[in-house]
């Protein structure tokens, strides 16, 4: 994080990752027009980009041997140039009868990131990382305590989803062959601090095949701790993706501690940006609130949150904290959670309590990476 000064003299915070070598260029980094130009540069007809894209995004393969509509020489050349290996699986652990799968990936430079595939009756969600580490420094978050290593590329983000889609299509997840229906940018990192790559990934995910995976934009959720300018920028993109605001406290005094970026953009500013986003997109904002024992789970805070959210296009998603080893932070008592829900409901606020899958497999983002050398 660095601080520059706006004309007003007020510090203007930026969240730049350390400069490092970049991952290899990949098909998923590019628009269709860019892919056609890249293929032409390799001495091939531009329509070969459409064929290559169809293999990757529709048939979910990067194996040149499977691309039988291309000559052996052509497929090898294009795959080498545009389908490099970006993610190497290090560890995979499962729970819930195999329907929850957490994968630890090693990137080309050794950085570690995580994704989680969760199959439910009627839908399958994948939670993806957008940065290796995170620079937001939230004290109850394993990733935040690890610090920021670097931003991920668009293709590194997309590859997590493609890997999950392959597993689903191959019937590797109990329940038979299926498809991914929902994507949540709630893994490692602050998505809006890696805005360009995340936006590129969203477009690759929702673009119809062969340009992308063809997943409904309404099935995509982008989370943020509250980077106000970036929320406004995302609202102007015209994409009907859901915004999830990680609020965690309704008052500035506590949120300054739990979500340090609140010292730059206060609760009122963050919520104002969220309501503007809802107005611009017509999409209901999800207010994420991790319930932490004796920290933010008091009934008066539920009342304050209820007053802030009532009559807005929003719902509150309460998250029983998934504690990290050695941390003083832990989940609220069941009776305090129930009281918090009741107080929100008394204000007419829609509220849900998140299904805490993955607790037994280090489900909190960053736990598996932190435990891996």
From TrEMBL:
Domain of life: Bacteria
Active site (record annotation): 114 (proton acceptor), 365 (s-methylcysteine intermediate)
Residues that hold [4Fe-4S] cluster according to the record: 134, 138, 141
GO biological process: rRNA base methylation; tRNA methylation
UniProt-listed Gene3D superfamilies: 1.10.150.530, Aldolase class I
Cofactor requirement: [4Fe-4S] cluster
GO cellular component, one term: cytoplasm
Binding site for S-adenosyl-L-methionine: 189-190, 223, 246-248, 322
Matching CDD domains: Radical_SAM
Alphabetical list of Pfam families matching this protein: Radical_SAM, RlmN_N
Catalytic activity: adenosine(37) in tRNA + 2 reduced [2Fe-2S]-[ferredoxin] + 2 S-adenosyl-L-methionine = 2-methyladenosine(37) in tRNA + 5'-deoxyadenosine + L-methionine + 2 oxidized [2Fe-2S]-[ferredoxin] + S-adenosyl-L-homocysteine; adenosine(2503) in 23S rRNA + 2 reduced [2Fe-2S]-[ferredoxin] + 2 S-adenosyl-L-methionine = 2-methyladenosine(2503) in 23S rRNA + 5'-deoxyadenosine + L-methionine + 2 oxidized [2Fe-2S]-[ferredoxin] + S-adenosyl-L-homocysteine
Signal peptide: none
SUPFAM superfamilies: Radical SAM enzymes (SSF102114)
Note: Reaction proceeds by a ping-pong mechanism involving intermediate methylation of a conserved cysteine residue.
UniProt function note: Specifically methylates position 2 of adenine 2503 in 23S rRNA and position 2 of adenine 37 in tRNAs.
HAMAP family: RNA_methyltr_RlmN (MF_01849)
Protein name: Probable dual-specificity RNA methyltransferase RlmN
Organism for this UniProt entry: Sinosporangium album
